[in-house]
Amino acid sequence: MDYGTAPEVSAALHTAIDQGVLGYLSPAIAGDMAVETSRYMREQCGWDVAPEHVHPVSDVMAALGVAISQYTPRGSAVIVPTPAYMPFLSFPPTRNRSVIEVPGIVDDGRYTHDLAAIDAAFKAGARTFVLCNPHNPTGTVFTRVELGAIAEVVERNGGRVFADEIHAPLRFDGREHIPYASISTAAAAHTITGTSASKAWNIPGLKAAQLITSNEADAEIYRGFGFAVQHGASTLGVVATTAAYRDGDAWLGEVVEYLDGNRRLLGSLLAELAPAIGYSIPDATYIAWLDCRALAIEGSPAEFFREHAGVTVTDGELCGAGYAGYVRFVFAMPRPILDQAVRAIAAAVATL
Ligand SMILES: Cc1ncc(COP(=O)(O)O)c(C=O)c1O
Q1: Does ligand 1 have an atom closer than 6 angstroms to the CB of 204?
Q2: What are the tens digits of pLDDT across the range 228-238?
Q3: Is 59's C-beta closer than 6 angstroms to any atom of ligand 1?
Q4: Where does the record place the Aminotransferase class I/classII large domain (predicted)?
Q5: 3-state class of 151 per DSSP?
């Protein structure tokens, strides 16, 4: 995202540096983040999370690592709905876990899960389901009914969920974010949630995220190893996160409004200049999932755009098997650059 961060976050960082708050993460600083995360979840998402259940980690991928290595049987497979955020596919194998890819269903341009295929993957031995809500890369914000249907499948199979909710603050049209673990006692009992202020407030390099446990049994297990995981969270990252959740609303509101304009501008530019590229306007995130299958590109569309338009996008193939004809386009940039990028893509497409 090209918009810097909230002035309140910058100010908190400057103050911390001026005061020499550069040591190891103290219980007081970690506690402040837990209190602010808990308040944010309650006020913004109606989720009652005790501060004691909010644990600092370096990043959401570390939380995923904990969820699969500490809460599921050794060697059990991980279900990743596709298309997926690329590391969901590449990360579990580094923890000796195989991935079962489950392609999603697109209904009238809206991405959702294939529950029968997820059920089959659990029956084939998988134990963890990775839920990405809001969904990267398609931008779907799942409804309470959809989340409930997932919980039923997971419960039926005695599985677990890793709920990645990092994009939750970046929603449009007043859409409601429903934390998965908040929907029922059963969901709370089988879920580890990973989230972070790092996407919305643009601070991923500061290395701080939150792993949230939602039942006492998981919290108790966490106490046995959590000190080692917490060691990865940076003090300045935790300070910045606390400021973001506590004071960063106004800045975030402006950013979301700007991104809302960008997702619409992207739609109108594509419709006018490159109508063969499929685009469903996302409900959340600053990512567009572009269907380039109708273009006569030989090979990877991402490579084509890089070479012939000077625009870097993510190759859809990295998001799962069967998505070679797609690209992932990040539109969190100034509008003149977005305009320039789409015009360059359209000009390259016109040469085909
Ligand atoms: C869905 C999703 N999860 C996790 C991450 C990475 O988060 P972190 O840097 O905290 O591991 C990203 C980054 O883009 C993301 O889009």
Answers
A1: yes
A2: 999 999 999 99
A3: yes
A4: 5-345
A5: helix
